[in-house]
Amino acid sequence: MESERQRLRITYIKGENLRFISHLDLSRTWERALRRAGIPIAYTKGFHPHPKMVFAAALPLGCTGEAEVMDIVLSQPMPPRRVLRGLAYSMPDGLAVVDVTPVYERAPALPTLLDGADYDSAVQTDEPVEEIARRCQALMARDSIPRVYRGKGYDLRRVVDELEAVRVNAQHVVLRMSLAAGERGTGRPDELLDELGLSEMPHTCHRRRLRFVAFAEPVDG
What we know:
- 21% of the residues lie in helices and 35% in strands.
- The chain is an alpha+beta fold.
- The chain has 2 domains: 2-107, Pseudouridine synthase I, catalytic domain, N-terminal subdomain (Alpha-Beta Plaits, 2-Layer Sandwich), CATH 3.30.70.580; 114-211, Alpha-Beta Plaits (2-Layer Sandwich).
- Strands 1, 2, 3, 4, 5, 8, 9 and 10 form an 8-stranded mixed sheet that branches. A two-stranded antiparallel ribbon has the order 6-7.
- A hairpin with a 4-residue loop joins strand 8 (160-167) and strand 9.
- The longest helix is centred in the N-terminal third of the chain and has 14 residues, at 23-36.
- The two termini are 18 Å apart.
């Protein structure tokens, strides 16, 4: 019955081994892992049922993440500890579950709570960090930065909350950025690198955390 369903919030890591798989392939990977672990995932109704999984935000292709968040709905309740233990043995290399927490099934959908995300992008360059930092400061001082992404115009400045450059070794400068998501639009690390003239240099992308307006109060379980 519908009342027996349970909604769980999963925090997980997406590592280097899976950085280049698409969001669709990630969803399929999760579905297989849940099936192997014997987790009774609920499915939508209709001719093409899909597992009831909702990701807070898709990771950009080529990006890793250390605190990714998703919600799943189970067709019957299961102790979160058992879900965590079962997934620990069924996840492929590159995916690891950090936490499983019950939430109210009628709580707002994760994407509607998303407010932003924090990223680190390590750029391979011998350019002085002071020069990159100067460009970052100049970008933050601008009132607007008109850009076009996939044929649509938007204001890049409006979705950049924080930006700094840090030299971590002789070969790399790390750009630490806090980007908006939600009503203001969604900031993309690659767009910011392009605006700073760094997109053609070898670089990596790592999402440190997702920021939410609020989390639903967990239920006992």
